[in-house]
């Protein structure tokens, strides 16, 4: 229980990483972080193989004890990490946050790029004043509830791809359904996890080029196809069927690693607003563990009840599994793939693109209240077109002007598009040029 609790706490890392990373490379850093999941999975597979050869207490003590190495590494290194400037601005002061921004960008505090980030954070704090748990579940001008649902849904989709119907039980499946020996099944499982590792890290090369939406949609299509082919493999008799199935197991892993391993984890902290980001990330993380538990729980009984058909229906809500197990018609056999493919229109219509946008620019996508269907889709098209389209579509959009006061300060004020002045959003102490 303590290990599970600790793992849940460590899922906060994505929030910290998203808040300290520059917009143009945030996806790369978050991909590296998520890729470490694949590193751990690979190590765990080989440790499981090694421990399968002993029947002593070491079989379960060693895997747990080895985790102390990584926990110790965190204890030593975390104190040297910088605190998130957005957290500092929210809980301490904007001036202290400015110093951290300057350190992260290796620029002086008076540099234009540093002041731009500072003012964006200040504007976000002003717009989201007095946020609470109630704010998170309210669909106000910041559309926090919509954003909460997007983060929750991204990690829900990750688990409903069916990755853990394979990852948790691949050795068991190889023994029971492909008739491999105990040692051979663990060897094949470890090799499968090892070849998965480079694919899990490969989005470093293209996540900021293709964006979140494209990878999610292409990943859903590929995973649906791989699931269908795994089901076909279960119906091919003999050794050929086993080889066929294992090939598509590997391809399933690889398609998942290039899409749904990293994108859902980066999307949740990106999409939530500053004041409720930690709360929104907590709910999204709960989605991951909730549906992880459901999938892992129903997999053994699902395989026992309907065999190969489970790889068709594993994308279904668990409430439908008993109905399918009772009698699978030709239509029902296809329904699971259709459900998985439904992720494609979900992402296309509902999920804004966050590639290359600062966290505050992402906030601008959700400004204002939509009506009807636009409550769920507003800002999606603008986000695809980029920051200029997002700014142009903002309700009550404004221009920022800088005014130098007599004492050498620079004051930024907002001018609405009709020419009237809005409230000041930031004052910087900048020496006079003399």
From TrEMBL:
<dbReference type="GO" id="GO:0016020">
    <property type="term" value="C:membrane"/>
</dbReference>
<dbReference type="InterPro" id="IPR003663">
    <property type="entry name" value="Sugar/inositol_transpt"/>
</dbReference>
<feature type="transmembrane region" description="Helical">
    <location>
        <begin position="214"/>
        <end position="234"/>
    </location>
</feature>
<keyword id="KW-1133">Transmembrane helix</keyword>
<dbReference type="InterPro" id="IPR050360">
    <property type="entry name" value="MFS_Sugar_Transporters"/>
</dbReference>
<feature type="transmembrane region" description="Helical">
    <location>
        <begin position="246"/>
        <end position="268"/>
    </location>
</feature>
<feature type="transmembrane region" description="Helical">
    <location>
        <begin position="148"/>
        <end position="171"/>
    </location>
</feature>
<protein>
    <recommendedName>
        <fullName>Major facilitator superfamily (MFS) profile domain-containing protein</fullName>
    </recommendedName>
</protein>
<dbReference type="GO" id="GO:0005351">
    <property type="term" value="F:carbohydrate:proton symporter activity"/>
</dbReference>
<dbReference type="Pfam" id="PF00083">
    <property type="entry name" value="Sugar_tr"/>
</dbReference>
<feature type="transmembrane region" description="Helical">
    <location>
        <begin position="289"/>
        <end position="312"/>
    </location>
</feature>
<keyword id="KW-0812">Transmembrane</keyword>
<dbReference type="InterPro" id="IPR036259">
    <property type="entry name" value="MFS_trans_sf"/>
</dbReference>
<dbReference type="InterPro" id="IPR005828">
    <property type="entry name" value="MFS_sugar_transport-like"/>
</dbReference>
<feature type="transmembrane region" description="Helical">
    <location>
        <begin position="60"/>
        <end position="82"/>
    </location>
</feature>
<dbReference type="InterPro" id="IPR020846">
    <property type="entry name" value="MFS_dom"/>
</dbReference>
<keyword id="KW-0472">Membrane</keyword>
<feature type="transmembrane region" description="Helical">
    <location>
        <begin position="27"/>
        <end position="48"/>
    </location>
</feature>
<keyword id="KW-0813">Transport</keyword>
<feature type="transmembrane region" description="Helical">
    <location>
        <begin position="183"/>
        <end position="207"/>
    </location>
</feature>
<feature type="domain" description="Major facilitator superfamily (MFS) profile">
    <location>
        <begin position="1"/>
        <end position="355"/>
    </location>
</feature>
<comment type="similarity">
    <text>Belongs to the major facilitator superfamily. Sugar transporter (TC 2.A.1.1) family.</text>
</comment>
């Amino acid at each position: 229980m303590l290990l599970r609790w600790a793992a849940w706490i460590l899922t906060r890392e994505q929030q910290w990483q998203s808040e300290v990373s520059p917009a143009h490379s945030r996806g790369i850093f978050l991909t590296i972080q998520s890729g470490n999941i694949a590193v751990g999975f690979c190590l765990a597979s080989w440790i499981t193989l090694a421990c399968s050869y002993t029947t002593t207490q070491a079989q379960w003590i060693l895997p747990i004890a080895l985790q102390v190495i990584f926990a110790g590494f965190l204890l030593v290194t975390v104190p040297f990490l910088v605190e998130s400037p957005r957290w500092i601005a929210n809980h301490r002061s904007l001036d202290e946050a400015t110093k951290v921004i300057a350190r992260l960008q290796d620029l002086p505090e008076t540099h234009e790029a540093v002041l731009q980030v500072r003012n964006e954070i200040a504007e976000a704090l002003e717009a989201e004043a007095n946020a609470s748990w109630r704010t998170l579940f309210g669909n106000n001008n910041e559309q926090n509830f919509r954003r909460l649902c997007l983060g929750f849904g991204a990690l829900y989709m990750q688990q409903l791809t069916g990755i853990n119907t394979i990852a948790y039980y691949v050795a068991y499946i190889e023994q029971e359904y492909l008739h491999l020996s105990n040692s051979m099944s663990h060897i094949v499982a470890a090799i499968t996890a090892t070849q998965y590792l480079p694919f899990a890290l490969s989005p470093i090369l293209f996540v900021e080029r293709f964006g979140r939406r494209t990878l999610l949609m292409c990943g859903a299509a590929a995973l649906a196809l791989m699931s269908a082919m795994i089901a076909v493999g279960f119906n091919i008799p003999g050794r050929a069927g086993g080889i066929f199935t294992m090939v598509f197991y590997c391809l399933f892993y690889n398609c998942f690693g290039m899409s749904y391993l990293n994108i859902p984890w980066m999307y949740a902290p990106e999409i939530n607003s500053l004041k409720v980001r930690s709360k929104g990330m907590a709910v999204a993380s709960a989605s991951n563990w909730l549906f992880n538990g459901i999938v892992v729980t129903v997999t053994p009984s699902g395989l026992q009840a309907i065999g190969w058909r489970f790889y068709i229906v594993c994308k279904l809500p668990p409430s439908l599994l008993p109905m399918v197990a009772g009698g699978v018609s030709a239509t029902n056999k296809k329904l699971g793939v259709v459900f998985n493919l439904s992720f494609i229109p979900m992402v296309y219509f509902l999920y804004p693109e966050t590639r290359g946008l600062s966290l505050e620019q992402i906030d601008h996508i959700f400004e204002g209240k939509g009506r009807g269907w636009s409550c769920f889709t507003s800002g999606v098209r603008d986000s695809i077109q980029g920051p200029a389209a997002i700014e142009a579509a903002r309700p009550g959009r404004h221009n920022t002007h800088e005014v130098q006061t007599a004492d050498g300060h620079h004051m930024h004020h907002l001018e609405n598009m009709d020419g009237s002045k809005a409230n000041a959003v930031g004052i910087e102490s900048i020496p006079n040029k003399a």
